[in-house]
Design goal:
The complex is a heterodimer of chains A (about 190) and B (about 280). Chain A is mainly alpha-helical. Chain A has 2 domains: about 90 residues, Rna Polymerase Sigma Factor, Chain: A (Orthogonal Bundle); about 90 residues, Orthogonal Bundle (Arc Repressor Mutant, subunit A). Chain A has 9 helices and 1 strand. The two termini of chain A are about 30 Å apart. In chain A, about 65% of the residues are buried. Chain B folds into 2 domains: about 45 residues, no CATH class; about 170 residues, no CATH class. The longest helix of chain B is centred in the middle third of the chain and has 17 residues. Chain B is elongated. Chain B starts with 7 loop residues before the first helix and ends in a 22-residue tail after the last strand. Chains A and B meet through helix 1, helix 2, helix 3, strand 1 and helix 4 of A and helix 2, helix 3, helix 4, helix 5 and helix 6 of B.
């Protein structure tokens, strides 16, 4: 998050300042890409680029604070995913049933004889994304929007078109499922 | 099925007798506290969530050039107007940015590129960083219209003129250089300004008569008083609105917050269409 300087950075970016835009981009891009990697893993990079193209087109007319900005950025990204999903007619994430064999087995250290000794401090971001992506899609998306995008429950609810209560439940279930999953894999503190 | 909707199947997968408290889950989602502060059974989860927020690696910012190209193309395609005239349109904080705020904006860039992230960015942004540094410490960069971001060869003059709209910016730059003793005060452009004013001692008077470009702002403003964020930064004026807050109350902007006032391009699927990727809550 950019913080209290956001308004200045946004204003400068809206006036054509490339470095200010660089600040916006570098602040948002990693989170955006990680979010997309979870909900649309195969095309995340292209979708992120497409998202920024759309954002840039409307940048000068954007009004709002940083929370509004983040919500707009991720809403734009999600629209790109929806558009793509409609085109490709495919689900963006794996199902939970496929978890043990297809996901965990592919995560070095999360399974196997020495899994219990895994030092979680070394858990790579990519491995973490893989684990989240293995959750039911709704739960995975909510967790990514809450934790990575930094949106609160109400913002996520608006973005996903669900009630705040549904978002809260999905997030809790997702974390519980994640805890169970890690425990099953022998991942300990 | 439990009261909160967790299926029996899920419950049987828990290795501990009781479910984690809702408060602990909310704390994780909000990023509050350290993993070691939470329940033991949630520590691995907390570590995973922390890993999700790790600093970006090089690959994640590898397509910055592509985004910059799109940005340049879009900004270059906007109707031609000076950055100042664009900044007069109603928008939060555009006229309320003071020295600390704008200077901090520069610091934000540095911060964003700091620590472990720096290595990922240093190769891709030196020119932009330098440009932004100019914006935050001196007025000239504020005059960089969107087209100014385009590399040379676009027909723009190679250096500032002391007449027309450029004079306004040059005056601001001169004022800043004078106050801070910048070496650029000896530049050709400044020498031209001094010459046009009839001497270094007359620059202030000369600049006071320079109208705001494109607006016909009456002469008489103090040198350096542009009303722009960077100009305010250059002269240490205090912002008239609290930093980081829109001039309008949050949630009541002129347009719906978080949305452009007039999104160009084809309409996209509105948020909240209930799609949710077609998945239930589990």
């Amino acid at each position: 998050m950019i913080g209290e300087n956001f308004a200045a950075v946004l204003s400068a970016a809206q006036q054509g300042d490339e470095a200010a835009f660089a600040t916006l981009w570098h602040d948002g891009q990693p989170a955006l890409l990680r979010y997309l990697h979870v909900i649309a893993p195969e095309t995340a990079d292209d979708l992120a680029a497409e998202t920024w193209t759309h954002v840039v087109r409307s940048l000068v007319t954007f009004r709002g604070n940083e929370r509004n900005w983040r919500a707009w950025l991720f809403t734009t990204a999600r629209r790109r995913v929806i558009d793509q999903t409609r085109q490709l007619m495919r689900r963006p994430a794996t199902s939970l049933e496929a978890l043990p064999d297809t996901v965990l087995a592919g995560l070095p250290g999360l399974r196997g004889a020495d899994a219990a000794d895994l030092a979680l401090e070394n858990l790579a971001t990519r491995a973490a994304m893989e684990v989240i992506a293995a959750l039911p899609p709704m739960q995975a998306e909510v967790i990514m929007l809450r934790v990575v995008a930094g949106l609160d429950t109400e913002e996520v609810a608006r973005l996903l078109g669900r009630s705040p209560g549904a978002i809260r439940v999905a997030a809790h279930r997702g974390l519980q499922r994640l805890a169970s999953l890690l425990a099953e894999a022998g991942v300990t503190q | 099925m439990t009261d909160d909707g967790v299926s029996d199947r899920e419950m049987t997968r828990f290795p501990w007798p009781t479910q984690p408290e809702v408060g602990a889950l909310d704390a994780l989602l909000s990023g509050c506290g350290k993993p070691e502060d939470g329940p033991a059974e949630l520590r691995p989860v907390a570590e995973v969530l922390l890993a999700l927020q790790a600093p970006p690696d090089q690959r994640e910012v590898a397509r910055w050039g592509e985004a910059l190209t799109a940005y340049r193309a879009t900004m270059a395609g906007l109707p031609r107007m000076s950055s100042r005239s664009r900044s007069r349109r109603p928008k939060p904080n555009a006229s309320a940015l003071g020295a600390k705020l704008a200077a901090a904006a520069g610091a934000a860039v540095i911060t964003a590129f700091g620590g472990g992230i720096a290595a990922a960015y240093t190769g891709s942004l030196p020119a932009s960083l330098q440009r932004f540094a100019h914006v935050t410490i001196a007025a000239p960069a504020v005059h960089s219209s969107p087209a100014a971001a385009i590399p040379r060869g676009t027909g723009h003059p190679a250096r500032p003129s002391v007449t027309g709209g450029a004079a306004f910016g040059l005056c601001n730059a001169y004022q800043h250089a004078e106050e801070h003793g910048a070496a650029s005060q000896r530049s050709v452009a400044f020498r031209n300004l001094v010459k046009a004013a009839g001497g270094a001692g007359r620059v202030a008077a000369y600049c006071a008569a320079v109208p705001h470009p494109g607006t016909g702002t009456p002469p008489g403003r103090r040198v350096g008083q542009t009303g722009s964020p960077t100009a305010a930064a250059s002269h240490g004026r205090k912002p008239t609105a609290p930093p980081g807050k829109p001039s309008k109350p949050p949630g009541k902007p002129t347009a719906p917050p978080g949305k452009p006032t007039a999104p160009p391009g084809k309409p996209s699927t509105p948020p909240g269409n209930g799609n949710g990727n077609g998945n239930g809550g589990g």
